Amino acid sequence: MVAPEPFYVDRGTPICVRQVVEALVELGYEVDLLTYPLGEEVHLPGVRVHRSSNPLRLSQVPIGFSIRKLLLDCTLVFRLRSLMRDGRYRVVHALEESAFAAAYWGPRYGVRVIYDMHSSLAEQMGALPPFQNRMSRAIFRRAERWLLERVTQVVSSSGLAARVRSMAPRARALEWRFSSEPILPGTEEVAALRASLALSPGQRIVLYSGTFERYQGLNLLLKAIARVQETNPEAVFVLIGVDGERASARIQRLAEGIPGDRLRLIKRQPRRSMPAWLALADLLVSPRLFGGNLPLKIFDYMAAGRPIIATDIPSHRSVLTEERALLVSPRVEALAEAISDLLGDPERAGRLATLAQSYAREHLGWSRFVTSVQQLYSTADPQERDPVRNA
Fold first, then answer.
1. Alpha-carbon distance 371 to 196, whole Å?
2. For residues 99 and 151, is the Cβ–Cβ distance under 8 A?
3. 373, 24 in Cβ contact below 8 A?
4. Is the CB of residue 82 less than 8 Å from the CB of residue 103?
5. Rounded distance between C-alpha atoms, residue 11 and residue 94, angstroms
């Protein structure tokens, strides 16, 4: 498995990578994980971690495209070729941009390639200021189509399969449903969080968890606070995920004028502590503006047994329905109205929460996820219905 990410850190893609390699080991595979020379060292039984070189001694890399990420990708690609040239792999499972190199060398070294498409690279690059022109976007789309048509199998984040099929109709495509087991934290743990935030018993919590990138729509949520306060003065907004000075400063600017007792900005939390934070909430929100991939937090939201409000965009629709969430137009007025409505309608809120959690219990358990990984590999390597023991 090739993951052009810091590993391990508690954020979207590395969490997904960890789930996949743990499932592969459970299925009997031996896994070599090639990743960046950054992140926490973790011991995963059955997994050998290979790290690319770091000649510039970089200590961190931001989410999304950057010069630092490009430099680390270069060293990763050289290491990937060295490993593939050994000829002992049947499958290379390549995430994001590393799939281009894997797809190029795969036929040469007789290796099947799975492209793990966590987002559309053409969409991401085309949104950057230097590439917001017709020619650049056409080049990126052509490169993405080349990749989709060349690999053995595509597995994408929820919401991206339609894009895969539209660009490469003959590509074999599956979608991830990552595991999110319902976890019930103790009441003492939740009470301790309320106390740490200086929340009174009557205050209602509207909680967001995730990155603070622009596409997450936090500007909508922050602008909605004043409108919600008019009808629900007891509402407090808790935003979890502050990571980095630039993102923090941007959010602070957007939050100017919001009373401090109505907004809490919390730094990124370890994944193991998130069940208590989600249990603290009266409402969970995902105001995402765009992006073809479903944010990983939605699976955790559903398992938490709390009502969900999400913008009505295709990626959310890939798992959420009107029965499992309140889906609203990505506008300040619509978001504010939805929050106020659910805070004032506990019966409807409870019904949405129950149905979402029931879906999570039935479809998002660990055994279901392991079965989906087994299906992916049996499709990518049909001669080996049993694990090859080397991926």
1. 41
2. yes
3. yes
4. no
5. 18
pLDDT tens column, 331-352: 999 999 999 999 999 999 999 9
Q: Once rounded to an integer, what is the mean pLDDT over residues 59-74?
A: 89
Letter string b/e over residues 77-106, b meaning 16 or more CB atoms within 10 A of that residue's CB: bebbeebbeeeebbbbbbbbbbbbbbbebb
- Residue 142 to residue 323: CA distance in whole angstroms: 38
Measured CA to CA, the distance from residue 180 to residue 183 in angstroms comes to 9
Phi and psi angles of residue 239, each rounded to the nearest 5 degrees, phi first: -115, 115
CA–CA distance, 315 with 162 (Å, rounded to integer): 10
319 band by pLDDT with thresholds 50, 70 and 90: very high
pLDDT in tens, 29-61: 999 999 999 999 999 999 999 999 999 999 888
> At 285, is the pLDDT very low, low, confident or very high (cuts 50, 70, 90)?
very high
| DSSP state for residue 202 in the 8-state scheme | T
The tokens describing 373, both together, are 């990984």
CA 18, 24, 30, 34 torsion: positive or negative? Answer: negative
- Mean pLDDT value across the chain: 91
Is residue 241 within a helix (H) or strand (E), and if so which, with residue range? strand 235-242
Which residue is associated with the tokens 């508690």?
Answer: 10
What residue has token string 């189509």? 145
Report how many helices (DSSP H) and strands (DSSP E) the chain contains, helices first.
15, 13
CB 265 within 8 Å of CB 244:
no
Q: Is the pLDDT of residue 316 over 60?
A: yes
Nearest Cα neighbor of 44 from 7, 4, 94, 82 is 7
How many CA atoms within 13 Å lie on the side-chain side of 83?
Answer: 27
* CB-count exposure of residue 365 (10 Å: 0-12, 13-18, 19+): middle
Task: Please name the residue that has the structure tokens 């053995």.
Answer: 152
Helix boundaries (H) for the chain? 12-26, 67-85, 98-109, 121-126, 134-150, 161-167, 187-196, 218-231, 245-254, 274-280, 297-304, 314-317, 332-343, 346-363, 366-380
Dihedrals φ, ψ of 367, to 5°?
A: -65, -40
Residue 100 binned pLDDT confidence (cut-offs 50, 70, 90): very high
